[in-house]
Amino acid sequence: MLARRHALPGAIATPCLNAASPSFGSRYFRLPSSTRRSHNSAADNSRRIPEPPRRDLFGRVAIVTGAGSRGDELGVGRAVAMLLARDGAAVVCVDRNLGHAQRTVEMLRNHDTPQQQQKQPPRAIAVEADVTRDTDCAAAVSQALNAFGRVDVLVNSVGVLGPPGTAVEVECQEWARGMEINVTSMMLMARHSIPAMRKNQGSLASSRRAGQEDDGHSALCGSIVNIGSVAGLRGGTPSLLYPTSKGAVVNMTRAMAAHHGAEGIRVNCVCPGMLYTPMVCGANGMSPETREARRRRSLLRTEGNAWDCATAVRFLAGDEARWITGSILTVDAGATAAVSINLS
Ligand SMILES: NC(=O)c1ccc[n+]([C@@H]2O[C@H](COP(=O)([O-])OP(=O)(O)OC[C@H]3O[C@@H](n4cnc5c(N)ncnc54)[C@H](O)[C@@H]3O)[C@@H](O)[C@H]2O)c1
């Protein structure tokens, strides 16, 4: 399995690759004919440049946790589900609130998508699951497999602010529950999704054997994107639980990337800054003063929303990011790039 994978796109520039093989030939650009004439066939093949990776997600199946958000509002999970569906993925919208997950499915079906232009409605289901429960996570992955036959992408978006308080103030049971929601849930969803992702190697190999078009995804089995936070990279957050749990998500991402890279499973983390989402604005909304203060706490001095995070997730989920694993991508309008944002 390893040998086959290493002979695929990651090795394209090496002369030892058998680029004359029919399964590779169609995936290479050719240099201009004036350049080609000066080389023999083997050298010619070694100088072909590979096609760029595909940007769309057609044929891919994505599980997104925390895809419910609230009412018609836009949380990160909902925005991710909508963007992945828009790019062609079948999406499994997981949330402990089934009604909210179902609303996301309705919203992504009504969203203008390339499939709709082709008269194919986006494929999506809503699944009720508490991702802190092992059995619920197993059932969510089973439902994805039953509905769509495979799992390619897992986006772990569930996260809560958790209990307030410093080490001397925080309530211990609430601390444990917060760690379960923000950290353990991501391990559990990965535990059940990775075995399904491993099966993707075989399915892509057989589609090539059957002479179907090589989709350019062949080296990869799956992509996991964990949602961290800039609070997991820096101190300065009033509570202890949130930055501690998000710091754990950051390094869990690196550890998982190391464990599963050789299997062709990429694991990355997106760390958003202060987005305006239902989680932070709360049931009563946010005062204009607070909103303005958050906006100004970044280099770009603009307010971020869930789409800003979701576009980064979509990139990491797809094959344009096929050489990226173990990365921590900040999406924070530059808030963590400078020691001070008072530049003048
Ligand atoms: N909003 C921000 O400013 C911000 C900043 C940095 C990081 N983040 C992270 O982004 C992620 C999403 O945040 P958001 O602002 O979109 O939140 P959100 O509250 O809009 O969405 C969270 C979703 O998770 C669901 N959920 C909570 N616990 C669950 C459980 N046990 N099982 C299943 N579903 C559960 C909720 O029902 C909700 O739909 C979180 O991990 C959060 O920490 C957000």
From TrEMBL:
**A Pfam family this protein belongs to?**
adh_short
Highest taxon of the lineage: Eukaryota
Spell out the Basic and acidic residues composition-biased ranges: 45-54
Q: What is this protein called?
A: Uncharacterized protein
Q: Compositional bias (Polar residues) spans?
A: 32-44
CDD domains, per database record: SDR_c
- What are the alphabetically sorted keywords of the record? NADP
Keyword Hydrolase among record annotations: no
Protein family: Belongs to the short-chain dehydrogenases/reductases (SDR) family.
Annotated region (Disordered), positions in chain: 32-54
Q: Which PANTHER family match?
A: NAD(P)-BINDING PROTEIN, SHORT-CHAIN DEHYDROGENASES/REDUCTASES FAMILY MEMBER
